[in-house]
Amino acid sequence: SSLGVLVGAVPLLFVGAFALFAEQIVRPMGRRLERALIRKWKGLPTTVGLQYRASGNTGLLKRRRSDVERIVGFKLPSRNDENRRPEETDAIYADAVRRANAYLSRAGDSRLLDENVQYGFRRNLLALKPFALSILAVVVISNGFLTFELNQWVAGASIMVLALVDALLWLIVVREAWVREQAETFAQRFFDSVAASPR
Questions:
Q1: Is it the case that residue 90 has pLDDT exceeding 50?
Q2: Angstrom distance (rounded) from CA 76 to CA 93
Q3: What whole-number distance in Å separates Cα of residue 116 and Cα of residue 81?
């Protein structure tokens, strides 16, 4: 029916329009979420890996800080600096990580870039989770209505199952722990790359 064709075209038009603006929409959402995660985690794992107050392994901390200092070309804050001004020193650590990461990227460390891309992907998906679940809820409700109105029970049931499976994936997989796992994987790769860098 013409109604069925129209209903089928609406999601395609929506997806096409969203794809055009996805990067401009999703990245700011991901950045906002990241700021909240940083407050909750008391820093990204790369920053925490340079903190005196978070380290239980003095030898590892000393090596990591020395490796980062070698690449960025300046001394990181002392333990006393960190105790007096923890927020300010965390900002310095984060800046040092950005500088070292930029250097390693220019040096062609593709594995580090891949881990960073994976982190950004997971972070952005978590930021999109409420939006995605809302869309899926609309799909389930509208599909139920249209299935009844158009008497298309087989197609309607298939769409319902796919939508519910999709919702379960968002609920079970896309979680804060999933993002943190990748953030820690990136941090480990970052410190390994810094240690192996000849600079």
A1: yes
A2: 7
A3: 29
Distances (CA, A) of 51 to 30, 78, 91: 25, 10, 11
Give CA separation, 69 vs 15, 57, 110, 190, in Å: 46, 18, 22, 14
Residue 122 contacts residue 23 (beta carbons within 8 Å) = no
The DSSP 8-state label assigned to residue 78 in this structure reads P
Q: Please check whether residue 52 is in contact with residue 79, taking contact to mean a CB–CB distance below 8 angstroms.
A: yes
Burial of 187 per CB tally in 10 Å (0-12, 13-18, 19+): buried
Q: What is the pTM of this model?
A: 0.82
CA 122 to chain centre: 4
User: In Å, how far from its chain's centre is CA 170?
Assistant: 14
Cα–Cα distance for residue pair 167/163, rounded to 1 Å: 6
